[in-house]
Amino acid sequence: MRREAEAMGEAPIRLVEFTRSFHIGGTEVQVLELLRGLPSSYQLQVSVLEDAGPLSDTLRGLGYTPEEFPLTGSLMRPNTGWQILRMARWFRQNRVELVHVHDFYSTMLVVPAAKLAGVKVIVGRLDLAHWLGPVRHAALAELTAMADHVVANAEAIRRMVVEQEGLPASRVSVIHNGLDLPRFDARAREGLHAPLPDTNGAPVVAHVANMNHPVKRQEDVMQAIAQLRDEGLELHAYLVGDGPRRPELEAKAAELGVADRIHFVGRRQDVPAIYARANLGVLASTAEGMSNAVMEGMAAGLPMVVTAVGGNPDLIVDGERGRLVQSEHPEQLAEAFRFMIENPEKAQAMGAAAREFVRRELSLERLVERHDALYRSVARPSM
């Protein structure tokens, strides 16, 4: 269909990818992958609420300078209304046909602006809204219902939008995140950007997550490692990420007596190389969407131990590509860690199966193809 449209000289679809900023995060990485992969049959533009973040250089390297619609504090300020009007005018001036909005704050502005401008809009729902209070969740649900279509990146999110928020199932699609495996492998081969702590040959589990919110539960990983220490098994952890909770987490490691085994390595852009130096990976969250951290651990061929929440069960089948455990049960993490360490051949087989799943099901090509088909069906349903 795409080639036929191009051969017939169809005008490019004027598409805007809209996200809050280009700080390092799973959503921002997925937007960049779409920008890299979408075909030339689109006229692409990028808009943000804040033109900031270390991934902004990558964006500009792809040839995009984002249009900024800045929030100045609370959504309740008059500036929000002004930015909605300004955005609607910009949509009309640029003859935008479709906008795909990827996050909560942007959705609050983009959906009203798109409706004012007569532009079709797709809302991305990429988490379980666990960090929103009831009022904000209700506002998000109401604006999501106004969208022409909704994209969830995990089955658990689709169920929430349909069963709890009441959207028709026909207006909600699941498109899993994608990963460029050759580029991931190339980044791993580049090696570390900075040294990692020496564990003297002890096995290492890698945990990649921000330290902004208790939902990530790094403390459960620490408690599991403390339990294994008490049982005579040495395991170290590389905690990749940073945020306001870091001092609290460092104090927790000291309190548990595992400060020598819990290594805070900060924000890193060499995650593939870090995973390559670990024996297994973990994500202990109490809520998740489709975790890029888990996907990257799988791409590295690591057996992953993850909590059975959100999109994690879409990625990990217990005993096949890793282990699933209950959230906030560090004793289950400890048992799974022990299994991986004491059964290296089985752990290696799980890691190999995980990587094959990424190659087969989570390719960048599949991500782009499914978005391409959705964009066309929404923007130009008669094509």
Structure explained in plain terms:
- The protein has helices spanning 2-7, 26-37, 56-61, 78-93, 104-117, 134-146, 155-164, 181-190, 218-230, 246-256, 271-275, 292-299, 312-315, 330-342, 344-361, 364-379, and strands at 13-19, 42-48, 67-68, 98-101, 120-125, 149-152, 172-174, 204-208, 236-240, 262-266, 280-283, 304-307, 322-325.
- It is built from 16 helices and 13 strands.
- It has 2 domains: 2-178 and 363-379, 3-Layer(aba) Sandwich (Rossmann fold); 182-361, Rossmann fold.
- The protein is globular and about 65 Å long.
- The longest helix has 18 residues, at 344-361.
- The strands form 2 sheets. Strands 3-2-1-4-5-6-7 form a 7-stranded parallel beta sheet, sandwiched between helices.
- It starts with a helix and ends with a helix.
- With 383 residues, it is an alpha/beta fold.
- The model is unreliable at 1-7 (pLDDT under 50).
Structural descriptors:
383 residues, alpha/beta, Rossmann fold, seven-stranded parallel β-sheet, six-stranded parallel β-sheet, 46% helix, Glycosyl transferase, group 1, Glyco_trans_4-like_N, glycosyltransferase activity
Short description:
By secondary structure, the protein is an alpha/beta fold. The protein has 16 helices and 13 strands. The N terminus is likely disordered.
Question: Secondary-structure map with pairings?
Answer:
Elements: H1 2-7, E1 13-19, H2 26-37, E2 42-48, H3 56-61, E3 67-68, H4 78-93, E4 98-101, H5 104-117, E5 120-125, H6 134-146, E6 149-152, H7 155-164, E7 172-174, H8 181-190, E8 204-208, H9 218-230, E9 236-240, H10 246-256, E10 262-266, H11 271-275, E11 280-283, H12 292-299, E12 304-307, H13 312-315, E13 322-325, H14 330-342, H15 344-361, H16 364-379
Parallel strand pairs: 1-2, 1-4, 2-3, 4-5, 5-6, 6-7, 8-9, 8-11, 9-10, 11-12, 12-13
Helix pairs in contact: 4-5, 5-6, 9-10, 9-14, 12-15
GO molecular function, one term: glycosyltransferase activity
Pfam family, one: Glyco_transf_4
Protein name: Glycosyl transferase, group 1
